[in-house]
Amino acid sequence: MPAKSLHTSSSRRYVVGVDIGGTNLRMALANARGQILARCRTSTTRISTPPDLIRHVRHGLDHLLRQTSLPRPSLQAIAVGVPGVTDSASGVVLLTSFFGQWRDVPLLKLLESGLDLPAAIENDVRLAAIGERWRGSARGLSDFVFLAIGTGIAAGIFANGHLLRGAGHAAGEVGYLVVPGTALELAAPGAPGPLECAIGGEGLRLQWQRICRENQLTLSRSDSVATGMFNRASAGDPFAHTLLRRTAQTLAYAIYDMAVVLNPSLFVLGGGVGVSPVLLEQTQLILRRFSEPAQPKLTVSALGDDAQLLGSIRLALDTAPSRAKRPK
Amino acid sequence: MPAKSLHTSSSRRYVVGVDIGGTNLRMALANARGQILARCRTSTTRISTPPDLIRHVRHGLDHLLRQTSLPRPSLQAIAVGVPGVTDSASGVVLLTSFFGQWRDVPLLKLLESGLDLPAAIENDVRLAAIGERWRGSARGLSDFVFLAIGTGIAAGIFANGHLLRGAGHAAGEVGYLVVPGTALELAAPGAPGPLECAIGGEGLRLQWQRICRENQLTLSRSDSVATGMFNRASAGDPFAHTLLRRTAQTLAYAIYDMAVVLNPSLFVLGGGVGVSPVLLEQTQLILRRFSEPAQPKLTVSALGDDAQLLGSIRLALDTAPSRAKRPK
After folding, report:
1. Nearest-by-Cβ selection for A177 from B155, B174, B257
2. SS3 A102
3. Mutation to test the A interface, candidates B147, B257, B297, most A Cβ within 10 Å
């Protein structure tokens, strides 16, 4: 269906979702049913201040409108996923390690005034949980955990059918978990947490590099390091397999402890490290021994890189002031 | 105010709360404002079947009515706290290790038909959380954890202002947590969990007895063993202090991990072990090093043994079919 036929110039029936990542700002324009009609991405390397971000988002909006030949008034709302501790109710980014560490940035207000659009913001991993619940591996579930394991580690938690945010908006910052196999202390204020150091992408890279150095192994440069290590483990490399097993064991403890507290029906694993099938398999093998009070069930994200973007579209649709019908 | 003046014979404005404990069945009759007018308790040693329990509760009801000179029709509802995995919505006790291990007992239905009263059932530690939120240390909080550490260990969790139950009603069964300092595996199906073995009342008793045996120390019989050990630690006994420090360290990891997942504003410690001021102090000392993503705040139960009973009264008031006014 050509884009032109999707709108009438007088209606405002489209929304935009934004996913702020480590290297890219990804945006998508969707219709009222949540179908993505256009996408764009831009590098985040030149963003350091909130006005920089607003400017990049505005350029992205213009680009999406040109792609779809939609008029500006057809946009109903925008929602932005933020990598960091975010107060979605007041619309303030309390803390992010991105952009040279922002604190207490009233991003919602800046977006609404800078773009002249109703806006919403939310922690990016919580948006991924929303995305997986809407269109992915957790469709219709009321109690589940989306666990993102990439460079960082965090969880988007649904409990009783609602996002769990916590008293200080920091629920699900599970990169800080201390379990058998992690460090027993926090390294320093602001430093990555024990679980993140042990099984996050950067932690794995450092461990794998050390193993390679100590054993005169050469690193494949074609893959991300965690992927390369997992591939080697699958191919029978004993060094890689030892690290894989250790990673799976630590991940199993973290998942089990979350399951003991929350009793979710499912864990959806996402992020560059989390989507590895070989890691999933090893972790499930270990979790078979943990049958009480309930054995955690795992699966891999169905949406992959799009989980956060789809979550932001869902949030934008919920933010839009008037819609004919709520999409499923 | 004499009991006689508290009712008119035509009204049904009173409720009964029941707390099923390891050795005692405790019951209280309260008015519509939640004030306790009478209490009774009976041993649970002769209870083994659900009809036994119903019979004991009926005798307790009669006793409470005699104490208050209230007519039977003045009772509006009854709520019962159950030590075990409980589906409060369907009113079924899924699993309890009490009474020789019940499974799938439709207790709500049995109560309503056996007592001819609207009834509700709930996990006992969740009721304690309700009690502390209503009248105790967690008044008005939306996100907090009531952590009961007695013979068993479990948590009643409020998130977003609602009880967190989990997909299989087993949320908060934190006696199963695996943290540094606990066993790394589950002992066996149905056995106490790793955290409970490490710092629960029975686990501490076994450890303290072993320490006493190995070091030719005599045990005081006047106190419960955990209390006796904590008193000795306070008095400067180096053996007891080592066990206290180890207990506090393990408890600190468990609390910190729960805080990382849930980000509650407060942990309320209850149960025979949990209310120890010296354990609280040692645990707080350790948690000062855990500042990210948020430092857990701890306090001790304000209601003590009455937390569960007050929670059951609150639940009974919410269950009562008609009330003039909802108490705060």
Report:
1. B257
2. strand
3. B257
The pTM of the full predicted model, rounded to 2 decimals, is 0.93
CB-side neighbour CA atoms (13 Å) of A28: 23
- Identify the structural domains of chain A with CATH numbers, from first to last: 3-128+307-319 (3.30.420.40), 140-301 (3.30.420.40)
Please calculate the CA angle B195-B201-B206 and round it to the nearest 5 degrees.
90
User: What pLDDT shows up at residue B264?
Assistant: 98
Assembly ipTM: 0.93
Q: Which of A262, A290, A295 to substitute to test the interface with B, most B CBs within 10 Å?
A: A262
The mean pLDDT of A111-122, rounded to a whole number, is: 97
- Residue B245 CA to residue B255 CA, distance in Å, equals 15
Q: What is the 3-state secondary structure (H, E, C) of A5-35?
A: HHCCCCCCCEEEEEEECCCEEEEEEECCCCC
Task: Check pLDDT > 90 for residue B221.
Answer: no
- CB within 8 Å of A236: residues ≥ 6 apart: none
- Show the tokens assigned to B218: 């005599």
Which phi and psi angles does B107 have, rounded to 5°? -65, -35
What is the C-alpha to C-alpha distance for residues A237 and B119, in angstroms, rounded to an integer? Answer: 61
Rounded-to-integer distance, Cα B298 and Cα B143, Å: 13
- Chain A with chain B: Cβ pairs closer than 8 A: 150
CB within 8 Å: B171 and A290: no
- Where does residue A279 fall: left (phi above 0), alpha (psi -120 to 50 degrees), or beta otherwise? alpha
How far apart, in whole angstroms, are the C-alpha atoms of residue B49 and residue B40? 21
pLDDT of residue A218: 78
**Cα separation of A199 and A215, whole Å?**
21
Is the CB of B263 less than 8 angstroms away from the CB of A173?
yes
Nearest-neighbour CA in chain B from A303: distance (Å): 23
- Determine, for residues A189 and B258 on separate chains, whether the beta-carbon distance falls below 8 Å: no
Euclidean distance between CA atoms A196 and A154, whole angstroms: 9
Closest CA to A164 of A201, A133, A196, A192: A133
